[in-house]
Design a protein that fits this description.
Helix content is 34%, strand content 25%. The strands form four sheets. Strands 4-5-10-6-7 form a five-stranded antiparallel β-sheet, sandwiched between helices. The chain has 290 residues and is of the alpha+beta class. The site of flavin-adenine dinucleotide (FAD) has 32 residues, from strand 2, helix 2, helix 7 and strand 10.
């Protein structure tokens, strides 16, 4: 690995001050589970690395007035997987977090790192997209809030600028009658990344679906919402036939590639199957949450 300067700030303001001081190429590191392999294989050669692991303000999960859950960017996948508030109100997020790597990886891997690394296969992105979460980004001019739907620009590219950092993810209250589910397919059972991942979030009132959100991973350069499928479900009583139709519409939102991990056709098939399964489970959970 090439040598670099290491900064160890303790506050968000100190991070921002460091980022504001030009010093060639600077990279932030949280858990390091994405960044360190990229440093070791020479993909990245930063001059300076800013370690966020001592910034305690990034590691809190708190319920805000109004019921939203504010998750610090430095909260680990393991903490989210085990958090009772997440497990009960946002099971799809707990499921996405629980699928990241191994326990050892999840004890380091942060939600902020998962989103900012912007891999198409990131497991925490689809649940957060389907939950309509916002990203809070701090920069020299203060904080700005960006809907997660506008956060990803491409593979490993986000709206977070070089002098900014992601500080929080804000998840709106799930509310009564709302249920979600995240599933992914991997060729190996452990330590593999998604060939396809699907998160569904359904809200039911008076027996009718009043809101549906479906987000897909690993079938486009960024995680994507299947909006035509969502619209097909809205205002309808959910039946297996309608769920099948929505699953077919979700396939149309996918733009998969063929690679050594799966062909485009196989990925389309997986979108259909996983959308059907996640919608069915999300619907059951929504009915139970009335
Ligand atoms: C063996 C192994 C298995 C894995 N399995 C999975 C898996 O199953 N599913 C999955 O989704 N991922 C998986 N990963 C990838 C990785 O663990 C996750 O993406 C993890 O959440 C990254 O978090 P981190 O804190 O380690 O990020 P880091 O490596 O510290 O950072 C990742 C990127 O985000 C940037 N960054 C980090 N925090 C911030 C911030 N607050 N603001 C701005 N930029 C920031 C960094 O500069 C870097 O570019 C795996 C990795 C390994 C090594």
């Amino acid at each position: 690995m090439r040598r670099f300067d290491l900064a160890l700030p303790r506050t968000v303001n100190d991070c921002l001050k460091i980022l504001a001081t030009p010093n060639g190429d600077t990279k932030l590191v949280a858990g390091g589970t994405d960044l360190l392999p990229q440093l070791k294989n020479g993909l990245l050669k930063p001059v300076r690395v800013v370690d966020l692991s001592r910034v305690s303000a990034l590691r809190t999960v708190r319920k805000a007035p109004g019921g939203a859950l504010r998750i610090g960017a430095g909260v680990t996948a393991r903490a989210l997987e085990l958090d009772q508030r997440v497990r009960s109100a946002y099971p799809s997020l707990a499921e996405g977090a629980a699928l990241v790597g191994s326990v050892q990886i999840r004890n380091l891997a942060t939600v902020g790192g998962n989103l900012c690394n912007a891999a198409p296969s990131a497991d925490m992105a689809p649940p957060l997209l389907a939950l309509e979460a916002d990203a809070v980004i701090a920069g020299p001019g203060g904080q700005r809030t960006v809907p997660l739907a506008e956060f990803f620009l491409g593979v490993r590219r986000t709206v977070v600028g070089p002098d900014e950092l992601l500080v929080e993810i804000v998840v709106p209250p799930a509310g009564r009658g709302s249920g979600g589910n995240y599933l992914r397919h991997t060729p190996r059972r452990e330590l593999d990344i998604a060939v396809v991942g699907v998160a569904s979030q359904i809200t039911i009132a008076n027996g009718v679906c009043v809101k549906a959100r479906i987000a897909l991973a690993a079938v486009a350069p960024t995680p994507v919402r299947a909006t035509a499928a969502e619209e097909a479900l809205t205002g309808q009583a959910l039946t297996p036939e309608l769920i099948d139709r929505a699953a077919q519409l979700a396939v149309d939102a996918a733009r998969p590639i063929s690679d050594q991990r799966g062909s485009a056709d196989f990925r389309r098939h997986l979108v259909r199957v996983l959308t059907r399964r996640t919608l069915t489970t999300a619907h059951e959970r929504a009915v139970a949450a009335r």
